[in-house]
Specification:
Helix content: 40-55%
CATH topology of the largest domain: Pyrimidine Nucleoside Phosphorylase, Chain A, domain 2
Number of strands: 7
Radius of gyration: 19 Å
CATH architecture of the largest domain: 3-Layer(aba) Sandwich
Structural class: alpha/beta
Strand order of the largest sheet: 3-2-1-4-5-6-7
Oligomer: single chain
């Protein structure tokens, strides 16, 4: 692999650059993950890809290279597929409710793996909220496996499941920009197939990219515009939620164009402690479950196979919402 030749292909600017084919992308990203690309060339490649924009074929190759290097987990016993929640953005404008949807699923018997960063920079990371809720990050894969089997919920830092991906993500602090690893890490499956990735993204471009990768790889996933890029539905206005499986897309809910009339009592304070208090209140029935979160819960129950069909999934989610509203 001649790095200068690849950089020349992808680095000619928006109009002159050419996409790598899937095989070359797979080989290149594998070398990047294995530390086989010198710092100068690595920076040039990441900036060139950022300027050009990654193609679906490139992202498929990148993801495959990442999958081959993951520290794998086994699906816990049960009829439902595990749900995988990437959490890399953190909350900036609204409370981070990724832990809420994850804990609701775990309570109902669906195994949930959350993976992400330990630091939120200027945002409220899921790790902060989970710590307030008594869920500490797992330091080994074995610990994560045991916690999934005992509690149905585990949070794993990126460095535990993929030190190489964590290193590529960290390059952002030096370059000042996101890179292709930030897209890839939201699409990985630490179970090696059979799980459902619940992916919230920030911009339409990344929504289309993630959708294309899941269709091309025939993997299962729920895709939607996340709140602040996190993997939970906006509690004030539901986004469009699409279920990708078997190489096809199935729209489960269309986006709400206007906010519901009823007031949503999420806290104004988005810091971790206030968010954790609100989540406890919802889980204990002292605060209502926002309907967009209940809708997302239904999608997760359907996609994981916990419910036999989508109507049953919506009914189960409605019971959860109603029980917490009247408790």
């Amino acid at each position: 692999m001649v790095l200068a030749k690849l950089i020349k292909e992808i680095g000619r600017g928006e109009r002159g650059a050419h996409d790598l084919d899937e095989a070359d992308a797979h080989q290149l990203f594998g070398a990047m993950l294995d530390g086989g690309v010198p710092e100068l060339e690595l920076g040039a490649i990441l900036i060139a890809l950022r300027m050009k924009g990654e193609s679906i074929g490139e992202l498929v190759g990148f993801r495959q290279a990442a999958q081959e290097r993951l520290n794998r987990l086994g699906a816990p016993p049960g009829n439902a597929r595990p749900a995988v929640f990437p959490s890399y953005n953190g909350a900036k404008r609204q409370p981070n409710l990724t832990p809420l949807i994850a804990m609701l699923l775990a309570r109902m018997g669906v195994s949930v793996l959350m993976h992400g960063t330990l630091e939120g920079q200027d945002r409220v990371a899921s790790a902060y909220v989970l710590r307030e809720l008594g869920v500490l990050p797992c330091t080994t894969v074995a610990q994560a496996q045991a916690q999934l089997e005992s509690d149905r919920l585990a949070f794993v830092p990126t460095g535990v499941i993929s030190p190489a991906l964590a290193s590529l993500l960290a390059v952002r602090s030096r370059l000042g920009l996101r890179n292709c690893a930030h897209t890839v890490v939201k699409l990985i499956d630490p179970f090696g197939g059979g799980s459902v990735c619940v992916v919230g993204v920030t911009h339409p471009h990344y929504l289309d990219a993630g959708r294309g990768v899941l269709i091309a790889t025939r993997e299962r996933g729920l895709m939607f515009r996340g709140t602040d890029g996190e993997s939970f539905a906006n509690p004030r206005k539901r986004p469009r939620i699409e279920y990708l499986h078997d190489g096809e897309g199935e729209v489960l809910f269309e986006a709400e164009h206007t906010s519901p009339d009823e007031r949503v009592d999420t806290p104004q304070d988005i810091e971790a402690r206030a968010t954790a208090t609100y989540i406890r209140n919802v889980l204990d029935g002292r605060a209502p479950l926002p309907m967009p979160i209940a809708n997302q819960l239904a999608c997760c129950l359907y996609a994981t196979g916990f419910a036999s069909d989508f109507n049953q999934a919506k009914a189960l989610a409605a019971v959860q919402a109603h029980t917490r509203a009247v408790a």
